[in-house]
Amino acid sequence: MTAVAITFLACLACFALIGAASVRRSQPTTVDYLVAGRSVSPWLTGLSSAATNNSGFMFIGLFGFAYRYGVQAIWLQLGWILGDVAAWLWVHRRVREYSAEHDVASVPRLLGTAPGGRVSRPIMVVAGLLTFVFLSGYAAAQLKAGSATLTGMFGWAPSIGVVLGAVIVVTYCFAGGLRASIWTDAAQAIVMLVALLALLGYAVASVGGPVALERALAAADPALVDWVPRSLRFGFAVYFVGFVFGGLGAVGQPHILVRSMAVRSPASIALAGRVYFAWYVPFSIAAVTAALYARVLLPDLLVGVEPGAAAMVAEQSLPAVATLLLPKVLLGVLLAGVFAATMSTADSQILSCSAAVTQDVWPRLARSVVASKLATLTVAALATLIALWASADVFGLVLGAWSALGAALGPVLLIRLARLPLPTAVGLAMMAAGLATVTWWSRGPYAGAAFELLPGFVVPLAIYGVFLAAAPRVMSASRRR
């Protein structure tokens, strides 16, 4: 495995050097550290957003899900893409305009800032705390995903991959802040796509085309080619729409939205979106398809595995099939691509947590670059500890954090960007209701019937609808008194 390790480490060194090179463009201000001076090109924004959104979840979590459930994974990813399209069409340009108009450098502060500039500190602080809590866990899931790949490939102790990822991320985040994250993300996105397409090419050469794949899956287990899950409580339409809302959950992810805040101009968002989907769509197709081939080539990974451990075992299918198919040099590139996927998300999440701490929870530190960097180090240490001790599978960790942030922050963001009135009490009630809904739904009797972000968006927006309906009567009664 010496050639694999050399290739892998060489790719990581290149990523680190790219991040370090961003220092030449850095300025000693928090605006530069947290939003790259709002000067990033749309090409870099699109590639960086793609790499950040499609993280260890795609390489490890989604790969394992498709390995277990077969072609049904296509609906998850198709719905996710459609929800993401809606976000790019309506949300991202408005985020860039609103953040520049009110001179905010973090998503929680944007949520707390009303049109005209009045700030609701309770909304800002609560959103900052939610960002800190859930993005720390989300970042831990990325470190855990990278570690899982190294464990599967080299047999290393899980702690080695976690610590290695954390050290690299902190190094280049310290060097150039968000600009370093974006530059490295763009390079990582290219490696991720090339590596996955190489794996898919070797798998197709080994098994055959789509017809051969379908026959092999059906022979292994007929359930793998069942397009629609059985016994859906609310039917297929609700099941699929749930995944669309899962993709729309991007509007509640600070580590993704901050890239739109950093792009050069609002007009650049359209090009950034085209670059994003030019990468995202083929990558999604390749990830799901390669996982289906992995199920054919390695049919026995789950034999004798306890149901509770099946998800974590399935998440080892990527390194296992890569080891089976790829030459050593390409294996090292793929490993670097997987590790890059985890770092491209973890760095953004750690920086967003740093912004939440210094810009929102303790705004007295808002202008201190030193405080921002210390916050980065603290959050990275916390994410490392969570990754070392968390027992949940990557798929579960990521979806839990994604849903919590999407439901708690996403509906409030939509109201802000629509420039509608949002009293502090209503905003806090929406965040609480969204978080409570996805928590209950994911653990309740309807968990498999629809993805939890469908009710997680509907309930907070319904609360806002009640407020709008009642507001004229309340204001009229107040005037009479």
Low-pLDDT ranges? 474-481
Give the end-to-end Cα distance, rounded to a whole number of Å.
80 Å
Order of SSEs, N→C? Answer: HHHHHHHHHHHHHHHHHHHH
Helix content: over 70%
Main beta-sheet strand count, sense and barrel state: none
Query: Which assembly state applies to the chains in this document?
Result: single chain
Question: How would you describe what is shown here?
Answer:
It is a single chain. This protein is mostly helical and 481 residues long. The chain has helices at residues 2-21, 30-35, 42-53, 56-69, 73-90, 92-101, 107-112, 121-154, 158-207, 210-220, 235-248, 254-262, 269-297, 310-314, 317-325, 328-361, 369-389, 394-417, 424-443, 453-480. It is globular, with a radius of gyration of 22 Å. The protein starts with a helix and ends with a helix.
